Amino acid sequence: AGIGKCVALDLARRNARTILACRSRERGQAAVEEIRAATGNPAVLLRLLDTSSLASVRAFARAVLREEKRLDVLVNNAGLTGLPFAITPEGLEQTFATNYLGPFLLTNLLLG
């Protein structure tokens, strides 16, 4: 939803192979189908990613490195605010993990 979906739509309109990294399979698949229909680009894919989980970030990065020939653009758009204080299963504060640590780790894992 929001900015991430708009960016994905614009990239798909430019005929880019576009991977939507989403926490929710259902919402992500709906976005993929909407973007494919709007752009005619069949190369819009869904991959699951929860940036609050470093294990999820590592698994996502491994899959991208294994499955994709190259990565030209990475848009780190995950973010949340206003949630009650929570600790992730890995012992990290959830907002900090989601908004900073997860995207930082993902970027570093995907660098050549």
From TrEMBL:
InterPro entries: NAD(P)-bd_dom_sf, SDR_fam. Keywords: Oxidoreductase. The lineage of its organism: Eukaryota, Metazoa, Chordata, Craniata, Vertebrata. PANTHER family: PHOSPHATIDYLINOSITOL-GLYCAN BIOSYNTHESIS CLASS F PROTEIN-RELATED, RETINOL DEHYDROGENASE 11-LIKE. Pfam families: adh_short. Belongs to the short-chain dehydrogenases/reductases (SDR) family. It comes from the Eukaryota. GO terms for molecular function: oxidoreductase activity. It comes from Oceanites oceanicus (Wilson's storm petrel). This is RDH11 dehydrogenase.
